[in-house]
Design brief:
By secondary structure, the protein is α/β, with parallel strands linked by helices. Helix content is 38%, strand content 17%. It has 15 helices and 17 strands. β12 and β13 form a beta hairpin. The chain is globular, with a radius of gyration of 22 Å. The two termini are 35 Å apart.
C-alpha cells in the first residue's frame, strides 16, 4: 500500500542522522541520477530576510502574465504542500508522494536529510511540469544549501544579516560569502541589500557573475500614491504599492523587477501585469494584519534584523494603548538581540514553549527579556507584564482575554509560534 504524505514526512525525519548536514555532494549525486534539469528560466532567491516576499512578488507578477509558474519556499506554516506551488496552488498530496517515490528509488545507498529529500522531490516535480518559470527560495545560507545544485539564470540576495551563525559564520562578511554562493559565472546576480558586505562583492567578481547592485544598477523612487522602478535599460513608472505591508517591500519589489528586466526577452510582462501582480500579491505571516479588533499582527521575525523591521512597521501603525506580544523562538537565535529591538514597543509579553528540542523554553525567554532591560510594572496606565505558557495557543488566548479592542497583539518569532496561533484561530 502506497505511503500517505504524512507517512512519508514522518519517515523522512529519521532517514539521516543529522537534521542539517551542510554540503552538496550527496544531493547532487541523487539529482544526477534523477536526470534533473530545467528547460525554462530559473530564479533563485537567497538572503537573511525578504526572501519570501521577493518570491511571492515574482510569482504574482508572472501569474498575471499568464505564465505557468513553480514556486518552492520553506519552511511551511500549516501544511507541507505550501512549499510547492504550481500556478499559485499548493501541490497535491498525490503529486508530492509520486516524486518522493522517484527520489527514494534514485537515491540508493545515499543518505539524505528531510530538507534535501523533499527539495529534490519538488525540483523534479517542477522539472516535469512543463513550466514557463521556476522560482526557488534558498534555505539556510546559500553556498551549501540543497537548492544551490541548480545553476539559476538569475540569483537574488535580498539582505545579509546575522542569523544561523553556527553554520554561516559570526560576521556579515562571513555570511556574505555564504549568501553569494548562489551566484554563477556569466549569469545575473542581484543584491538588494543597500549596504552589501565587501565579501559578497568580491565573490561576485571572482565568480564572474554580472552583478546588479541596488542604488547603482537599479533603484526606486516614489510618493504616497505610487512609485517608480529604474533599472539598467528599463523604467516602470506609476506602479501601485505592493499589497504586502512593511518598510522593506519596495527593496524586495525592486529586486523582483530587476530579475524580470534581465529575463524580459524570455518572460515579457506588460505594465498592467506588473501593477496587478504587485497589488494582488499575498504572503501569510509577513507583517500580516488580520481584520477585526483588537488588531492581530502575524510576523515570522526571528532574528534582530527582522525584529528591527517589525519594530519600524509597528511604529508606522499609529497609536494603540497597549501592545501584547506572543513570542517563541529557537534557542540558537540571538534572542536578546531580537528583544532589544522590541522591548520598548511591547507592554505585555506572553512567552511560549515550542514543541521542538531546539526551542528555547518560555522561562529562558523571560530571562533574556529581563536581561535586555524589560521591567515589569503594575502602575496604572503603564502596566507592563511578562507571562510564560506551554503552547502558542495558550499564550495567544491569554493576550486575547486581556487586550482591549483598541489594543493590538503581535504574534512573532519562529514559524512554529505563528503556525500554532494560526492553527488555533482556524480551528476555533
Amino acid at each position: 500500500m502506497p505511503l500517505s504524505l504524512t507517512d512519508w514526512l514522518a519517515r523522512l525525519e529519521s532517514l539521516h542522522p543529522k537534521a542539517i548536514d551542510m554540503g552538496l555532494e550527496r544531493v547532487a549525486s541523487v539529482a544526477q541520477r534523477l536526470g534533473l534539469h530545467f528547460d525554462c528560466p530559473v530564479i533563485t532567491v537567497g538572503g537573511t530576510n525578504g526572501k519570501g516576499s521577493t518570491c511571492a512578488m515574482l510569482e504574482s507578477m508572472l501569474l498575471q502574465g499568464s505564465y505557468r509558474v513553480g514556486l518552492y519556499t520553506s519552511p511551511h506554516l500549516l501544511h507541507f504542500n505550501e512549499r510547492a506551488r504550481l500556478n499559485g496552488e499548493p501541490a497535491s498530496d498525490e503529486m508530492l508522494c509520486a516524486y518522493f517515490e522517484q527520489v527514494e528509488a534514485a537515491r540508493g545507498e545515499v543518505s539524505l536529510t528531510y530538507f534535501e529529500f523533499t527539495t529534490l522531490a519538488i525540483l523534479k516535480l517542477f522539472a516535469s511540469a512543463e513550466l514557463d518559470a521556476v522560482i526557488l527560495e534558498v534555505g539556510l545560507g546559500g553556498r551549501l544549501d540543497a537548492v544551490n545544485i541548480i545553476d539559476a539564470d538569475v540569483a537574488i540576495v535580498t539582505s545579509v544579516d546575522m542569523d544561523h551563525m553556527e553554520y554561516l559564520g559570526d560576521t556579515r562578511e562571513k555570511i556574505g560569502v555564504e549568501k553569494a554562493g548562489i551566484f554563477r559565472h556569466g549569469r545575473t546576480a542581484i543584491c538588494s541589500d543597500p549596504q552589501p558586505p565587501d565579501s559578497l562583492l568580491a565573490h561576485a567578481t571572482a565568480t564572474g557573475a554580472d552583478l546588479w547592485l541596488f542604488g547603482r544598477d537599479f533603484n526606486y523612487s516614489g510618493d504616497r500614491q505610487q512609485w517608480n522602478y529604474g533599472g539598467r535599460s528599463l523604467r516602470r513608472n506609476a506602479l501601485a504599492y505592493p499589497s504586502l505591508r512593511g518598510a522593506n517591500q519596495l527593496l524586495n519589489a525592486s529586486a523582483a523587477l530587476a530579475a524580470l528586466e534581465v529575463l524580459r526577452d524570455r518572460l515579457p510582462l506588460g505594465a498592467q501585469e506588473v501593477r496587478s501582480g504587485l497589488v494582488m500579491v499575498e504572503l501569510p505571516a509577513r507583517f500580516q494584519v488580520l481584520p477585526g479588533r483588537p488588531a492581530v499582527i502575524l510576523d515570522v521575525a526571528h532574528n534582530p534584523h527582522a525584529a528591527a523591521t517589525l519594530a519600524q512597521n509597528l511604529d508606522n501603525m499609529g497609536f494603540h494603548p497597549y501592545t501584547f506580544a506572543v513570542f517563541g523562538a529557537m534557542a540558537d537565535k540571538d534572542i536578546q538581540g531580537i528583544m532589544a529591538q522590541l522591548k520598548d514597543r511591547i507592554d505585555h509579553w506572553c512567552l511560549t514553549d515550542l514543541p521542538l528540542p531546539r526551542a528555547a523554553s518560555a522561562e529562558s525567554l523571560a530571562q533574556h527579556l529581563r536581561a535586555a532591560g524589560f521591567k515589569e510594572s503594575t502602575e496604572p496606565g503603564v502596566e507592563r507584564t511578562l507571562s510564560c505558557f506551554t503552547t502558542p495557543e495558550q499564550a495567544f488566548n491569554d493576550a486575547k482575554n486581556r487586550a482591549g479592542e483598541n489594543d493590538r497583539m503581535v504574534v512573532f518569532g519562529s514559524f512554529i509560534t505563528v503556525a500554532g496561533v494560526m492553527a488555533a484561530r482556524s480551528s476555533g
